Amino acid sequence: MKQAPEHLVDLIEPIVEGLGYECVGIEYNPHPTHGMLRIYIDSENGILLEDCTKVSHQLSGALDVEDPIQGEYQLEVSSPGADRPFFKLSQFQRFLGSTVLVSLFKPIDKRRKITGQIKAVEGETVLLQDGEQLLNIPFQAMSKARLVPDYLLTKGGRSGK
Predict the structure, then answer these.
(1) For residues 119 and 127, is the Cβ–Cβ distance under 8 A?
(2) What pLDDT score does 155 carry?
(3) Phi (first) and psi of residue 116, to 5 degrees
(4) What is the C-alpha separation between 159 and 156, in angstroms, rounded?
(5) End-to-end distance of the chain based on CA atoms, in angstroms?
(6) What is residue 155's three-state secondary structure?
(7) What are the strands, taking DSSP E only, across the chain?
(8) CA 121, 2, 55 angle in degrees (round to 5)?
(9) In the structure, what pLDDT confidence band is assigned to residue 1 with cuts at 50, 70 and 90?
(10) 152 pLDDT exceeds 80?
(11) pTM of the model
(12) What are phi and psi of 55, to 5 degrees?
């Protein structure tokens, strides 16, 4: 799963959680002139713009002091949204029975994208039901994973085929 480098996670997660939010995940896309550091936050009550602003303000100060990123980058704090990204194996466990779209580093069964219902998490493997097929997908084989919102399922939205 594409998560930010460990030194950024170790710096950012405690700040987000100290403010009372769940740190869903952190994306870091380095670039010499326009890098992006995106932090997804959540809470039981949902996320409002004020929540993102509060977390962004706290993180900006810490990032300025610690200076863990070389070069310029844009800081973005966001709600995970209805199609929330997954960064950790525990997130698959939390959403058992839900449908996800998984992108793979290398094809499995000649497919790089798979849409399926999460049936189980066994060790480091996620079991996805895609129609009649039950697929064992190693967590390390996943480059991206996102929840597929119910409204897309009923309207014939995303297809991982």
Answers:
(1) yes
(2) 59
(3) -160, 165
(4) 8
(5) 20
(6) coil
(7) 22-29, 35-42, 73-78, 99-108, 111-122, 125-130, 133-138, 142-147
(8) 100
(9) low
(10) no
(11) 0.86
(12) -65, -40
Amino acid of residue 108:
I
In angstroms, how far is CA 98 from the centroid of its own chain?
15
- Nearest CA-CA partner of 91 in 48, 19, 146: 146
pLDDT > 90 fraction of the chain, expressed in percent and rounded: 78
Contact (CB, 8 A) for 117 and 129:
yes
Q: Hunting for tokens 């009372």 — which residue is that?
A: 20
| 57 token code pair | 């303000």
Return the structure tokens found at 121.
């998490």
Long-range contact list for 4-10, CB < 8 A, 24+ apart?
Answer: 4/28, 4/37, 7/68, 8/37, 8/68, 8/69
Residues 6+ apart with CB under 8 A from 20: 43
> Which tens digit of pLDDT belongs to each residue from 35-54?
899 999 999 999 999 999 99
Distance between CA atoms of residues 118 and 98, nearest Å: 6
